[in-house]
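Students often ask why we bother predicting the structure of a whole assembly rather than each chain alone. The short answer is interfaces. A chain on its own may look different once its partners are present, and contacts between molecules only exist in the joint model. In this exercise we take two input lines together and write out one structure for the complete complex. Read the inputs first and try to guess which parts will touch.
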Amino acid sequence: MSPTARLSLIVLLGWTALAAFAPLLQLAPDTISLPEIMAPPSRASWLGHDDLGRPMADRLVYALRTSLLVVILVVPLSAAIGAGVGIAAAWRGGLLDACIARLMDVFLAFPGALLAIAMAGLLGPGIGNVVIALTAVSWVGYARMARAQAHAVKSREHVLAARVLGTRTPAILLRHVLPLIAAPLLMEVTLGVAGVILAEAGLSFLGLGVQPPSASLGAMLRDGTAYMLVAPHMVIVPGLAMLALMLACNTLGDALQRRLDPRRSLSLMPAA
Amino acid sequence: MIGFLLTRLFSLAAVVLGVVSLVFLLLHLVPGDPVEVMLGESATPADRGELRRSLGLDRPIAVQWAQYLGRLSHGDLGASLHSREPVAALVAGRAQATAQLGAAALLVSVAIGLPLGIGAALRDGRGLDRAALGLCALAMSVPSFWLGPMLILLFSITLGWLPVSGRTEAGAIILPALTLGIPLAAVLTRMVRASMLQVLGEDYLRTARAKGLPPAQVTLRHALRNAALPVMTVLGLQLGGVLAGAIITETIFQWPGLGQLTIESIQRRDYPLVQACVLVISLAYVVVNAATDILCGLLDPRVRMT
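Now the answer. The structure tokens for the assembled complex follow.
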């Protein structure tokens, strides 16, 4: 593992730990303090205070917690739906496969971010609707990958052997097909994490995501942009945190891709 | 050749029908009764009935769908709930600003990505290559809603060179075009580099060098031309990302395009306008992708086979 990949892994593990154990840290992300409105970073509070005098460091931890929560809900959900639909289409073939392929074409015909923004906007704000909108958009990437891979694996000899032996279909799919397509799906998941973090922050930046007083990277950036002239730390701090997170996800995704498929040594970001 | 064009056009038509249908269904995502949400608490039952009839919401969903398709075929996108103006005119007025921004962003990305990608490939593994790849990783990871404000902070506020936002002042397009174009430039750089590296190892390039052609001619005419196809495909695909990214970029810079209109109409719960914005942006994406696909087929006979 290269040093940059190791550093990325440390960043991501640190993010997960910080976000998961945030309640144990006794932080005060919602404590309003009028004398400290937009106070710049100081020795007492490393990252300064926001426009309501709330400590930026505490809010950042809770914003990272929001990102983690959305990632934990959206990524497994869309990967499971996508893999299920993709494998089912490839396995059954025929009309079902053709219909699902068409449906995937239609979903892929939308710029993902646009569909997420429209759905989140129409459903109304709130973390639940963010999860619904992002899952509705991201399942199709996993479905396309799973369908293509399952089509290739379906006619392998060990699968044929299992069928001839009378193994039941769910067992074949779980034990003989899924393990063979797990590696490319895992790669898709790594890049998916970056995409979901970015999308959640983007929706919150537009005011369509997590609602105040809950903290979110996107909402912090939005407030920060509004007060950029008087308190630049309000936009710089959450931005740097997000940049580190995205860089770590993408670097790790690249490293994983190189490991799994050395021929394709370059990766393309999921359209954000 | 004609067969290739016909199959591509047929699948384009199928996808367009699917996209239109999905956009139609979007309105039914609004929780509860959309009419109630649009009119608010104080509306009389008569008002509600009238709006419901004028939107066609009192009919079965299949009939509504057919009516929606029928109106679309006449170019009728409905009327804005907010200003009562025809939606088609509102959207057309904004589309031009978005197209202008998209073209400028594309220009930025090609101006940066092409030379940087070629340079990196020629200096494979050395200082310039590593620096270029590092910059790319950074540029692909930076969220546009942070890059934009940082550019404003640097160029508009600290240096005072460029306007903060809007479209009227001279040079106002530069910062939004950079915000949208820089991540795209990073993708392009990586793609050009990878594609060039593949081509540079080919026998015909060794031949070109061996027969004493000047290095510039070898690089530009013999290598770049063959490396261009995968690059074009990616550029076409990424243009959709640009259109979607324009929503956020236009919001940051108050650029009066389709993206800003989308957000404004969502905030005002102007559903016909939201529908129309989503429809126009996604149809533009679909058409650009199909055009890229067909163009690649025209340029490279190998693509037509698949």
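Check your guess against this: The radius of gyration of chain B is 24 Å.
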